[in-house]
Design brief:
eight-stranded mixed sheet, 480 residues, 21 strands, globular, alpha+beta, Amino_oxidase
Amino acid sequence: MSLAALSFPLSSSAFHFSSSNFKNLNCFKPPNATSQQIPLNLSSPNENPSPSPSLNKTGVIVVGAGLAGLAAATRLQAENIPFLLIEASDAVGGRVRTDFVDGYTLDRGFQIFITAYPEAQKLLDYGALDLQRFYSGAQVFYDGRFHTVADPQRHFADAIQSLTNPIGSVVDKLLIGLTRIRVLTQSDYEILTAGEVKTIDLLRSIGFSDSILDRFFRPFFGGIFFDRDLETTSRLFNFVFRCLALGDNTLPKDGISAIPKQLAGKLNPNSIKLNSRVASIDYNSEKGIVVNLDNGESLRSDLGVILAIEEFEAVKILAGKSEVKVPVRSTVCLYFSVDSDKIPVRDPVLFLNGSGRGIVNNMFFPTNVSPFYAPPGKGLVSVSLIGVYDGVNDEELVERVVKELSEWFGEACVGSWRYLRMYRVGFAQPNQCPPTDLMKDPRVGPGLYVCGDYTTNATFDGALVSGRRAVEALLNDRVL
């Protein structure tokens, strides 16, 4: 199992990173994509449009090139509907971004991809992503040492040996197996529309002890939801638990941004417009729906507009037509480099903080999963915290993390690590505490639709599903 719903990553305005040690970041841009004015017309997206600067309209305008927007654009192109995908930042991906620096692959926040995501299986070429697998389990730091939690379906011997360790009782581990059976007998739709409670209340009702709640579930699923209190809806817990049971936890060989890169690579590059921030939308215009950009340019849609941006940004544009549930979920991710021969473990495993103290929630060595994440002879360390620690400066935060992990791996080991970069992710996920509607209608008004993980579930898959649903709603409305 793994922290697979970390979302998931990051609009340019939603995070801060320290970059004193690095220069010349290279972010993905779709092949031939441009941030300049491009001609828009109603030709098929599979045709090469003729230059026509006087035209400023298209069929559908998709605002935001994160996973939801890319999924919407993919569906529009499959339906042969002309569209323009506009993005405020300099590259596609939204919260799913990677920086490539001096041979290191630094995902913007800790993110893991689960192969069992149903929508992703339809849209992505897993072979081309060259997915690198994690160990199906975790090492939990408790009482001064590490203890194994293993998936019995994949690592039976490890699971048997771990039955008597202090990370929960034997009964707790049997209850995990029963919970696995329960979610596997339900469909995704049944899970996402079932009655809901807080995850912590669900786990207690199942009968899990405080020891396994505190030592495993809080750091593991708390890291997934950025919510150690486990107040997130049981619907999301059950969906993620089902995906974990069915799939492998992986990283693409070339970083998490390979996922949006692959989606964008299948689109007509002339349909993608970067560095274009939306200022407002006039959806009562007699000329159709008009999208006004910060640079003064106005774009007209003949068929509809799909807002595939973060919830708080959509609320601003829609002038209060939606409410953002607070607090939003935040995280800090720190990266360190280490000489390959000084990495303390070789297994591609996730480490969890089950001690109940300290600020580290989880960490791992990305180069144990994919050696391509660092230059030859080097390893990479990824450390995740929950919250953004606004009152703590970068230097103090690094010092506290190093001190804490020295207790895990020893001062001599951690003392050789070199700090690389910090990402403070102010908006990592929407808040999905009960009550939730994970099947939200994407319609906002005539010809205006929203999508994003906040309209479905806060996973990679939820974002992809939301983009498809927005286009399906638009198509249904056009037929009526």
